[in-house]
């Protein structure tokens, strides 16, 4: 199945850059884009240039004082002490020149994707530069300054008045987006992530279900450390299918962090490319089943930027555009070009070799725990009058 | 710390067909406030609290109470579905359920069978030792020799990397009095530099443990 899809990209997205060794590196977006170009699945006509976000769009979610602080930091006028109040200038989210402008482009790119889909120009749109789900109303955190996902959903609510299902498969809990819509019954959030008992940010327990009118519209699947493909995908697929049937959204927004892979240095999950193939395949299928194809996909975390993220992200586009995954050998030109820069051997195939899958002695117990939390999380995902 | 370490395993239960009068007698005789309702398979299908039971009981001022109400089945007043927990859940995770849902007891279920119960009182006992999971943070556990001066030594590693410590707990290491486990929660999404420094300084990490060490762990 071929779909009309847009790949939102410009080099402006690469300017969101803290410092050379910082784990969050937007070169990942460029690596994925070039991988697709060398694989001949991304043409120039697919690429949509992003705009920058305006202040009033940032204000849909963020506090005025916070935006002003980011602007000051952007020109080196925010002191360290002033920054602390806003989570800026920490080890995770340091200040850098023009950080406001760079962040506005990430947000603008996500809004560009939204308008492309909801203006009926395309079925699906992808902004790999977005998905900064830890950004709070008045505080930067976890590598995220402005929360493009939360802003985009506010924008969809305001401009298009549609009901949104947000699905976050990053290994870290999508806390910023969850809290943004915690009392809103028109936005349903689903986050599958490594349990917060060890991992940042620590929230995302199944009992976080929303408050007031929004109660029952936040879903969390905090899977055990060392969870592997089979169990991760079982939870993802069961929950996504059941929740979309329950909520019946008008549009799907996915956050596609690629840090649940066993190679990822920051998390303790043990999935492989199998997971990153199934994630967009199911989102694509459900978009065509429930939302008339309306699907906006964003990037997110992913800290093995050479071996994992480019392939994982490229497959989202392959599914969006052609309805199928790339298989077999990776384009040799891509490998030749980037191997020189990479400290690790670049993968030769789109799939992972089975040899990389570690043997986890506690697998049965982990799977049992994960199944139990799935049932617990879905306890209220039933039609209200059913 | 796991729930199975603090749960009560001797749980008073009733079948759904028991009468309200039986429940009333149980809470008075055993000084308990919650009765899980279980089916033949010991699967939890409901729960009643002392307040549910008392709401269904006649007032002490009522001269001619209607005894018929007390002979109704307990399933007519039980709450369901029931939020349950697992023996291998962490105490600090379950604390959030107690807080957010305002429950005062939670049945513990494994393989679909009731295996215990945890009450507020059990939690408070445990929570004296636990804190600090309510803010964004990452978790690091270090096994250290139990000797004077070790804590500032380890904490200095965090200080050098400007990692803000949001909570620190000192746990015993199994039954061995010669070691302690220091549990730090630090305000960063990227604990790798600190972890690297701790390893280089020769400290033994209980978490994150690398996969090979994990594989050697006897289950």
What does this entry look like structurally?
Chain A: Belongs to the histone deacetylase family. Chain A: Pathway: Ketone degradation; acetoin degradation. Chain A: Keywords: Acetoin catabolism. Chain A: This is Acetoin utilization protein AcuC. Chain A: Residues 22-319 form the Histone deacetylase domain. Chain B: This is Acetoin utilization protein AcuB. The complex is a heterodimer of chains A (386) and B (219). With 386 residues, chain A is α/β, with parallel strands linked by helices. Chain A has one domain (5-380): Histone deacetylase domain (Arginase, Chain A, 3-Layer(aba) Sandwich), CATH 3.40.800.20. Helix content of chain A is 38%, strand content 10%. Chain A contains twelve helices and eight strands. Chain A has an eight-stranded parallel sheet, with helices on both faces. In chain A, strand 7 (251-255), helix 9 (273-290) and strand 8 (295-298) form a beta-alpha-beta unit. Chain B is of the alpha+beta class and 219 residues long. Chain B folds into two domains: 3-127, Roll (CBS-domain), CATH 3.10.580.10; 138-216, 2-Layer Sandwich (VC0802-like), CATH 3.30.2130.10. In chain B, 32% of the residues lie in helices and 26% in strands. Chain B has helices at 3-6, 20-30, 50-55, 67-70, 91-101, 120-127, 150-160, 192-200, 211-216, and strands at 34-38, 44-49, 105-110, 113-119, 138-145, 165-173, 176-186, 204-207. In chain B, strands 6-7-5-8 form a four-stranded antiparallel sheet, with helices on one face. A two-stranded antiparallel ribbon of chain B has the order 1-2. A two-stranded antiparallel ribbon of chain B has the order 3-4. The radius of gyration of chain B is 23 Å and the shape is elongated. The two termini of chain B are 17 Å apart. The model of chain B is unreliable at 212-219 (pLDDT under 50). Classes of the chains: A alpha/beta (386), B alpha+beta (219). Chain A binds chain B through residues 23, 90-92, 134, 141-143, 172, 175, 195-203, 205, 207-208, 226, 265-266, 268, 358-362, 365, 368-369, 372, 376, 379, and chain B through 81, 83-84, 86, 88, 90, 92-93, 96-97, 100-101, 109, 111, 133-139, 161-164, 185, 187-192, 207-208, 211, 214-215, 217, 219.
């Amino acid at each position: 199945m071929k779909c009309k899809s847009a790949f939102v990209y410009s080099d402006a997205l690469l300017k969101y850059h803290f410092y050379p060794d910082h784990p969050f590196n937007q070169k990942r977006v460029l690596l994925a884009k070039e991988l697709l170009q060398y694989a001949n699945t991304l043409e120039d006509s697919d690429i949509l240039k992003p705009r920058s976000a305006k202040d009033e769009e940032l204000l849909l979610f963020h506090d005025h004082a916070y935006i002003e602080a980011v602007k000051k930091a952007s020109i080196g006028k925010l002191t360290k002490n002033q920054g602390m109040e806003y989570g800026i200038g920490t080890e995770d989210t340091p200040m850098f020149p023009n950080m406001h402008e760079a962040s506005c482009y990430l947000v603008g790119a996500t809004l560009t994707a939204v308008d492309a889909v909801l203006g009926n120009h395309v079925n699906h749109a992808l902004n790999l530069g977005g998905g900064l789900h830890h950004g709070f109303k008045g505080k930067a955190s976890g590598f995220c300054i402005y929360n493009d996902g939360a802003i985009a959903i506010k924008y969809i609510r305001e401009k298009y008045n549609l009901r949104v299902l947000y699905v976050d498969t990053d290994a870290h809990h999508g806390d910023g987006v969850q809290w943004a819509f915690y009392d809103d019954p028109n936005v349903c959030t689903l986050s599958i992530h490594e349990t917060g008992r060890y991992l940042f940010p620590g929230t995302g327990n199944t009992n976080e279900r929303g408050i007031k009118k929004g109660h029952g519209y936040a879903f969390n699947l905090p899977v055990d450390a060392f969870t592997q493909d089979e169990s991760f995908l079982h939870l993802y697929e069961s929950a996504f299918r059941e929740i979309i049937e329950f909520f019946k959204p008008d549009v799907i927004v996915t956050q596609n962090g690629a840090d649940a892979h066993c190679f990822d240095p920051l998390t303790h999950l043990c999935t492989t490319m199998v997971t990153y193939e199934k994630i967009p395949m199911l989102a694509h299928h459900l978009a065509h089943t429930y939302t008339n194809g309306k699907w906006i996909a964003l990037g997110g975390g992913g800290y093995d930027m050479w071996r994992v993220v480019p392939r994982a992200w490229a497959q989202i586009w392959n599914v969006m555009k052609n309805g199928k995954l790339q298989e077999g050998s990776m384009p040799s030109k891509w490998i030749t070009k980037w191997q020189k820069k990479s400290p690790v051997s670049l993968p030769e195939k789109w799939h992972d070799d089975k040899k990389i899958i570690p043997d986890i002695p506690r697998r049965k117990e982990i799977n049992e725990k994960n199944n139990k939390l799935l049932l617990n999380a879905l306890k209220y995902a039933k039609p209200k009058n059913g | 710390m796991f729930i199975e370490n603090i749960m009560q395993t001797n749980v008073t239960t009733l079948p759904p067909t028991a009468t309200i009068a039986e429940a009333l007698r149980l809470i008075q005789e055993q000084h308990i406030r919650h009765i899980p309702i279980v089916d033949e398979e010991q699967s939890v299908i409901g729960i009643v609290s002392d307040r549910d039971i008392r709401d269904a009981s006649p007032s002490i001022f009522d001269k001619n109470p209607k005894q018929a109400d007390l002979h109704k089945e307990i399933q007519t007043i039980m709450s369901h579905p029931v939020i349950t927990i697992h023996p291998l859940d962490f105490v600090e995770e379950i604390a959030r359920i107690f807080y957010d849902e305002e429950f005062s007891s939670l049945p513990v279920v494994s393989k679909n069978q009731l295996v215990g119960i945890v009450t507020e009182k059990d939690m408070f006992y445990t929570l004296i030792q636990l804190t600090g999971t309510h803010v964004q943070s990452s978790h690091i556990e270090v096994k250290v020799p139990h000797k004077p001066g070790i804590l500032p030594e380890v904490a200095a590693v965090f200080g050098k990397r400007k990692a803000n410590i949001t909570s620190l707990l000192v746990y015993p290491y199994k039954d061995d009095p010669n070691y302690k486990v220091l549990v730090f929660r630090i305000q960063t999404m990227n604990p790798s530099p600190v972890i690297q420094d701790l390893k280089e300084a020769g400290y033994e990490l209980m978490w994150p443990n690398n996969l090979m060490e994990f594989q050697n762990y006897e289950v």
